[in-house]
Design brief:
The chain contains 16 helices and 12 strands. With 402 residues, it is mainly alpha-helical. The protein has a domain at 68-271: 3-Layer(aba) Sandwich (Rossmann fold), CATH 3.40.50. The strands form 5 sheets. Strands 3-4-5 form a 3-stranded parallel beta sheet, sandwiched between helices. A 3-stranded mixed beta sheet has the order 6-10-7. A hairpin with a 2-residue loop joins strand 8 (227-228) and strand 9 (231-232). The longest helix is centred in the middle third of the chain and has 18 residues, at 171-188. 44% of the residues are buried.
Length: 402
């Protein structure tokens, strides 16, 4: 059976959560060619009892055995080294005012006495409540903020091409969001960049669950080898009359931009026990964070990734390409934190995963100048034969979660 995107042909699930080995790791997306959207996928191996266990579940087991008092002392030692005595910015916190960026910035400032500069790569199409949460983060939380809105014309072109070439509506946002922390830290010569949870808690290798990320991850060694929106950089510039300057914010820093600045890229979730639900309650209490006034399509939750109207479409396309949708990610996290059982998670995934996000889809497609019929025709072209089968004119997963 043919598989797309270098996906493993044999599909199997973690026996502790509900993720499968089809989940791509969030390796730097600027390296992706259309034919190899991800060359690394979720690690699922047998544990000592013979149960298939994914890397995020193993990371969670490590967290349950961690001496968090000792970890916090490591954090204090790091912060004491870099804390500004004159009130100058001493760390950067990238974010949009969602629960995680609120939690990280607020803890660093009010508990640990740091002086964070918050930086934002804005959503492509803000939701009303997402924009209000962003304002509350800055105004009620009390933070300085730099928001870098990219060239709207170029962003629209890149986002449309990302859908047409990769069925990836969110690539432009993800890349900007990944790079803005490093770019602003280098520009203002700020030594620390703090993120919330490590990617290893969701889909990256266990080895990436560490205090500090390698600086090379944010460095641009050879821009001519990069792909963006499924096209080589040079072809993108020539065919669409886009300058390299307009693309620069989507790419990692080059050595000239970095200069002599030595930056440490840190995960606060390595030093303190990070639980998404607790981050949500904390952000409600301290910045009046608001969940969606309705259930998010494709899942059962209301408060995760709610800033951008394109976000819902992103998870739908993930379901099409990999057979894993938004409910799978939400349920897996809640299973690990013992908020629901795996059996409950399977039922939630079966009910909500892959739901078409009708609330915002017309507005999103109108913005990108894509006809709805053309979009859904494109969707079917990106279904990998080893994941999908068509029965009585309806698409069904060959291997639904079990």
């Amino acid at each position: 059976m043919k598989s797309f995107y270098n996906l493993p042909k044999e599909i199997y699930f973690c026996e502790k959560c509900v993720l499968s080995n089809q989940v791509p790791s969030s390796i730097p997306e600027f390296l992706h060619k259309p034919s190899r959207e991800g060359s690394k996928y979720l690690e699922i191996n047998r544990d000592k009892n013979g149960r298939r266990t994914c890397a995020p579940c193993k990371v969670h087991e490590m967290k349950n055995k961690t001496d968090w008092d000792k970890r916090e002392k490591e954090l204090l030692k790091l912060l004491d080294k870099y804390r500004s005595k004159k009130g100058e910015y001493d760390c950067v916190v990238p974010g949009s005012g969602g629960k995680d960026s609120v939690y990280a910035a607020h803890l660093l400032k009010y508990k640990y006495g740091m002086h964070p500069l918050t930086v934002t790569w804005p959503p492509i199409l803000y939701t009303d409540y997402g924009y209000q949460n962003f304002k509350n983060w800055i105004e009620i939380g009390g933070f300085d903020n730099i928001s870098l809105k990219p060239n709207g014309k170029v962003q629209k072109i890149l986002t449309k091409l990302s859908i047409e070439n990769l069925l990836h509506p969110f690539q432009t946002f993800i890349l900007g969001q990944k790079n803005i922390g490093a770019r602003m830290a280098a520009k203002f010569k700020i030594p620390l960049v703090f993120y919330g949870e490590s990617d290893a808690e969701y889909n990256n290798p266990i080895s990436e669950f560490s205090a500090i990320r390698d600086q090379k991850y944010w460095l641009n060694s050879n821009k001519n080898k990069f792909y963006l929106s499924g096209l080589p950089i040079k072809k993108l510039m020539n065919n669409y009359n886009i300058s390299f300057k307009d693309l620069q914010n989507y790419l990692p820093l080059d050595k000239k931009e970095l200069g002599n600045t030595k930056i440490k890229y840190c995960y606060l979730g390595y030093f303190i026990k990070w639980t998404p639900q607790e981050a949500y309650y904390y952000s409600v209490e301290n910045t009046n964070f608001k969940a969606r006034p309705f259930r998010t399509e494709g899942t059962y939750s209301k408060y995760n990734s709610i800033d951008d109207k394109i976000d819902d479409l992103h998870y739908f396309t993930s379901y099409i390409k990999f057979g894993i949708g938004r409910a799978s990610y939400d349920a897996s996290q809640e299973i690990r934190n013992k908020h629901i059982t795996r059996d409950e998670g399977v039922k939630l995934v079966s009910k909500f995963d892959g739901e078409i996000p009708i609330r915002y889809i017309d507005e999103v497609l109108d913005y990108l100048d894509i006809k709805k019929a053309s979009f859904f025709k494109l969707v079917d072209k990106f279904r990998s034969p080893h994941i999908w089968k068509k029965t009585k004119n309806k698409w069904k997963l060959r291997n639904p979660v079990y």
